[in-house]
């Protein structure tokens, strides 16, 4: 029989075997084609990228995506090669040369890849269309969809070339495996032999300690300048943390989990139960055969989740911080009375006089002397301006908070008391009790004591940092001197923060005012700047999570095929369908749960470390990482849940099919 | 001794085959009896075993095990029935690879929710009876074929079922291992009074039984009883009958 007709017959007659390979290849190629189509979509790129940043990111992410396609297809190919070694051994016994066998394998791979490409192009095209629709809807872009074809021919050609390159690589890898294996090895490769598990409690406990130490170092970053990251150096500690996490994970899987399972095995009261007696030893057996993959999967999913979470955090955190950075809907320093009047008239026309409120606040920049001057006092000096406190009246503070729809949460002040508005959170409130001698003109000073500190600045950072809320009496006293003062106009109103028309009405009038800020404008800018990054990273993250899910699927389904006789004998011993299903389900659950939990745990600590190290803490809440974290874990859980369900059903089909269910 | 197994007019035809695999088969097995089933390949031995052990259903006829008409049981009831009343020994052992010998023997008892102490006690008693006490902590891959089959026999017997089905238990064993297994099986049979129904091609293994039914074309074609004969004499009888059956074929 010709090799080509044999390859076609093999694929046609072993549909259930090859379909697994076919669908996974089609899925990966569809995702790949979607990505390539997006990166070659000039219509959308010209809308979201003005400086070539998105194109650069696309090129960077493309490297990872191609690497993933190569890795994934090689893994799938190797997996199927191993499952076919006995069959190949029989071919060898029948007199097939290794070259002929390689031809057969290559032809089969070509058939599957050709089928995969045929399925992937329309599917990937649809995915791409969906992604474009999502981006245009999120960013409010006007895009002519008819200019975007379902199948981008350039992208299709690129995909085809990549697949050809991967096919060549697979052929080389198969050739290597065939020529390195003897006939005996080929026939025996499929046979599994169970050997006693060498339990190494010391290595297990050591691994656990390494992991805890790694997590401890990540948490230590939260101590800021007191942490060893600052004292010893970022790079060495980062490397050490990574090393601890990697080695700890490896030892956890290789030694700690087997040790825990063995403890279960020794506790006969727990172990001698119909489900446990099957599940625990089978899990131990799979730990031995798939330990390396599991370690890789944990690190891959942990890393992917951390990068994805960090990207979401980088987008989300500035948006949340906007409430502090620009507390009113719009704000500007009154540099010219005419400008102010024109602005209010423009607002009257756009939103109506009842559609907005405004508040004018006088800010006095005052020099002060104290042994405990806060960091905020010198922030202006860092930016080339004069150092000093920007003082506002207590009553103005209340009015501004009212304008912003917030409660006044400051304590009532006595004459010589003040409230310091902090730039960064200070949970220890160490400024309370500090006495500042505020210059009121000439050599006179007015002493105020800090009664409380707060993060709630009613004036935006563009107009005031290091704000001091003082009583109206003290404020008047400060006005008697030569303190520099200016007026800040804050505009608020229901729904005004998101009203584009209001911003656009003021923009031409205040275009020359460097102190003009708008919550709407800043938010739009942040979304525009970050959404493409978020999109590309999300894309890469989803691809990597799909890779981990697919690998788990392959391994679990393969184990189910191997274990089918075991389940048959269990059925004869009296395990009913529900009990067998439960045993199968438990095994799939444990096998999915280990990388899921470990990956999540790694990413939680990595994200905490990232946030503490690289992000300006404006909100002072550790819960600030919660939303990005939940977002990352949510996506991860969703992908895993889908894979878990698909895998579980595939295992049920494999194990229970022949019993008429 | 009362009847443990009563088979009455059992017929089974597979869709792809024209002739019935079992054709109006009827026989009985008494409590503690060691019954052998012999016959050429395709004579219906394995079908009979599957039907009797509730793995498959007959098209017609009745099978009573302890007065329960087993073909009438649904899937869950059949599984529960197997759990409590039947033991299995196979040619390929079918021990669970990832479990040690001790755990393999313990599995049927966990299904019956025995306590850990009871399971340990019974496991060790059976391991001693089948002379595999020193192998209890080993995995099946570390044992010889004979040891594996004795472990499988211990697993089948550990819950003391009233009826054990053995499908070619010596088929994959050398003569020494076959002898060890059959001796152990016969001893346990005599001591515990368990009824054993064994399908075999091997006249030597069959010589340990009390009675042999010869199957041909799905029917019982001949029967041979020990009737108090010594092992050697019964073995000679079996050889002669087997040769006669082969000639007829």
TrEMBL record, chain A:
Species: Lactonifactor longoviformis DSM 17459
Membrane topology according to the record: Multi-pass membrane protein
Pfam families: FtsX
Localization (cell): Cell membrane
A single BP term in Gene Ontology: transmembrane transport
This protein's UniProt keywords: Cell membrane, Membrane, Transmembrane, Transmembrane helix, Transport
Superkingdom, taxonomy of origin: Bacteria
Major place of residence: membrane
InterPro entries: ABC-4_Integral_Memb_Prot, ABC3_permease_C, ABC_permease_BceB-typ
Transmembrane regions: 20-40, 60-80, 101-123, 155-179, 199-217, 237-260, 294-319, 534-554, 590-613, 625-643
Family assignment from sequence similarity: Belongs to the ABC-4 integral membrane protein family.
Keyword rRNA-binding: no
Protein name, per record: Putative ABC transport system permease protein
Domain ABC3 transporter permease C-terminal: 60-167
This protein's GO CC annotations: plasma membrane
TrEMBL record, chain B:
ABC transporter domain mapped to chain residues: 5-242
Sample GO molecular function, one term: ATP hydrolysis activity
Domain of life per record: Bacteria
InterPro entries (alphabetical): AAA+_ATPase (IPR003593), ABC_transporter-like_ATP-bd (IPR003439), MacB-like_ATP-bd (IPR017911), P-loop_NTPase (IPR027417)
Key words, A-Z: ATP-binding, Nucleotide-binding, Transport
The keyword Lyase appears for this protein: no
Gene Ontology CC annotation, any one: membrane protein complex
Residues annotated as signal peptide: none
Pfam families: ABC_tran
Keyword Zinc-finger: no
Gene3D superfamilies per the UniProt record, alphabetical: P-loop containing nucleotide triphosphate hydrolases
PANTHER family named in the record: ALPHA-D-RIBOSE 1-METHYLPHOSPHONATE 5-TRIPHOSPHATE SYNTHASE SUBUNIT PHNL, LIPOPROTEIN-RELEASING SYSTEM ATP-BINDING PROTEIN LOLD
Family: Belongs to the ABC transporter superfamily.
The protein's name in its UniProt record: Putative ABC transport system ATP-binding protein
Organism lineage string: Bacteria, Bacillati, Bacillota, Clostridia, Eubacteriales
């Amino acid at each position: 029989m010709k090799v080509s007709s044999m390859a076609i017959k093999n694929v046609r007659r072993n549909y259930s075997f090859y379909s697994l390979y076919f669908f996974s290849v089609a899925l990966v190629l569809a995702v790949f084609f979607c990505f390539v189509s997006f990166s070659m979509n000039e219509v959308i790129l010209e809308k979201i990228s003005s400086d070539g940043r998105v194109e650069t990111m696309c090129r960077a992410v493309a490297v990872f995506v191609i690497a993933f396609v190569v890795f994934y297809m090689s893994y799938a190919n190797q997996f199927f090669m191993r499952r076919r070694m006995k069959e190949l051994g029989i071919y060898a016994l029948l007199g097939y040369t290794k070259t002929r066998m390689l031809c057969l394998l290559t032809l089969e791979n070509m058939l599957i890849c050709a089928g995969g490409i045929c399925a992937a192009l329309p599917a990937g095209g649809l995915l791409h269309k969906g992604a474009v629709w999502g981006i245009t809807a999120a960013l409010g872009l006007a895009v002519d969809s008819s200019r975007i074809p379902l199948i981008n021919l350039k992208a299709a050609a690129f995909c085809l070339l990549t697949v050809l390159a991967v096919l060549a690589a697979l052929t080389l890898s198969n050739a290597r495996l065939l020529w390195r294996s003897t006939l005996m090895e080929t026939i025996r490769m499929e046979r599994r032999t169970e050997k006693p598990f060498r339990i190494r409690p010391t290595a297990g406990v050591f691994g656990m300690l390494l992991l805890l130490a790694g997590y401890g170092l990540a948490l230590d970053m939260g101590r800021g300048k007191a942490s060893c990251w600052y004292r010893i150096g970022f790079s060495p500690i980062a490397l050490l943390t990574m090393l601890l996490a990697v080695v700890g994970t490896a030892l956890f899987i290789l030694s700690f989990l087997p040790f825990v399972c063995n403890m279960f095995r020794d506790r006969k009261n727990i172990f001698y139960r119909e489900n446990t007696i099957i599940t625990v030893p089978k899990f131990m057996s799979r730990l031995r055969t798939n330990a390396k993959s599991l370690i890789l999967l944990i690190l891959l999913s942990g890393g992917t989740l951390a990068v994805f979470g960090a990207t979401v955090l980088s987008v989300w955190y500035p948006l949340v911080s906007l409430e502090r950075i620009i507390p009113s809907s719009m704000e500007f320093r009154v540099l010219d009375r005419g400008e102010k009047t024109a602005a209010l008239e423009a607002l009257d026309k756009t939103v109506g006089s009842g559609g907005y409120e405004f508040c004018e606040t006088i800010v006095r920049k005052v020099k002060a002397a104290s042994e405990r001057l806060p960091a905020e006092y010198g922030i202006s000096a860092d930016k080339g301006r004069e150092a000093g406190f920007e003082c506002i009246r207590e009553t103005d503070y209340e009015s501004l908070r009212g304008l912003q729809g917030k409660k006044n949460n400051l304590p009532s002040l006595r004459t010589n008391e003040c409230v310091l508005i902090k730039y960064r959170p200070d949970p220890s409130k160490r400024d309370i009790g500090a006495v500042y001698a505020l210059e009121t003109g000439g050599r006179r000073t007015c002493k105020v004591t800090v009664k409380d500190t707060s993060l709630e600045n009613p004036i935006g950072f563009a107009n005031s940092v290091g704000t001091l809320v003082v009583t109206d009496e003290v404020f008047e006293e400060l006005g008697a001197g030569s303190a520099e003062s200016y007026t800040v106009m804050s505009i608020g109103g229901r729904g005004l923060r998101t009203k584009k028309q209001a911003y656009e009405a003021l923009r031409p009038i205040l275009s020359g005012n460097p102190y003009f800020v708008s919550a709407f404008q800043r938010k739009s800018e942040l979304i525009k700047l970050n959404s493409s990054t978020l999109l590309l990273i999300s894309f890469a993250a989803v691809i990597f999570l799909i890779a981990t899910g697919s690998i788990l699927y392959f391994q679990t389904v393969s184990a189910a095929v191997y274990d089918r006789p075991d389940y048959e004998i269990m059925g004869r011993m009296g395990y009913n369908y529900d009990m067998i299903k439960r045993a199968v389900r438990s095994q799939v659950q444990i096998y999915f749960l280990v990388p899921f939990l470990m990956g999540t745990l790694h990413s939680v600590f990595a994200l905490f470390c990232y946030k503490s190290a690289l992000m300006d803490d404006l909100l002072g809440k550790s819960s600030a990482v919660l939303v990005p974290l939940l977002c990352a874990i949510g996506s991860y859980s969703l992908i895993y849940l889908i894979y878990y369900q698909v895998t579980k059903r595939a295992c049920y089909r494999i194990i229970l099919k022949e019993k008429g269910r | 001794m009362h009847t443990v197994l009563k088979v009455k007019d059992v017929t089974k035809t597979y869709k792809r085959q024209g002739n019935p695999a079992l054709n109006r088969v009827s026989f009985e097995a008494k409590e503690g009896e060691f019954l052998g089933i012999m016959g050429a390949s395709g004579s219906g031995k394995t079908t009979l075993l599957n039907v009797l052990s509730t793995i498959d259903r007959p098209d017609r006829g009745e099978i009573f095990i302890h007065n329960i008409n087993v073909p009438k049981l649904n899937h869950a009831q059949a599984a529960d029935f197997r759990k409590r009343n039947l033991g299995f020994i196979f040619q390929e052992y079918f021990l669970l690879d990832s479990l040690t010998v001790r755990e393999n023997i313990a599995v049927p008892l966990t299904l019956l929710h025995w306590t850990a102490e009871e399971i340990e006690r019974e496991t060790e008693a059976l391991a001693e009876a089948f002379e595999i006490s020193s192998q209890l902590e080993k995995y099946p891959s570390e044992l010889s074929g004979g040891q594996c089959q004795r472990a499988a026999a211990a697993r089948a017997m550990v819950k003391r079922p009233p009826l054990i089905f053995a499908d070619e238990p010596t088929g994959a064993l050398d003569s020494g291992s076959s002898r060890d297994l059959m001796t152990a099986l016969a001893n346990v049979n005599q001591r515990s009074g368990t009824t054993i129904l064994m399908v075999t091609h091997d006249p030597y293994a069959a010589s340990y039984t009390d009675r042999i039914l010869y199957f041909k074309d799905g029917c019982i074609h001949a029967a041979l009883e020990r009737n108090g004969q010594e092992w050697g004499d019964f073995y000679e009888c079996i050889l002669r009958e087997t040769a006669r059956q082969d000639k007829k074929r």
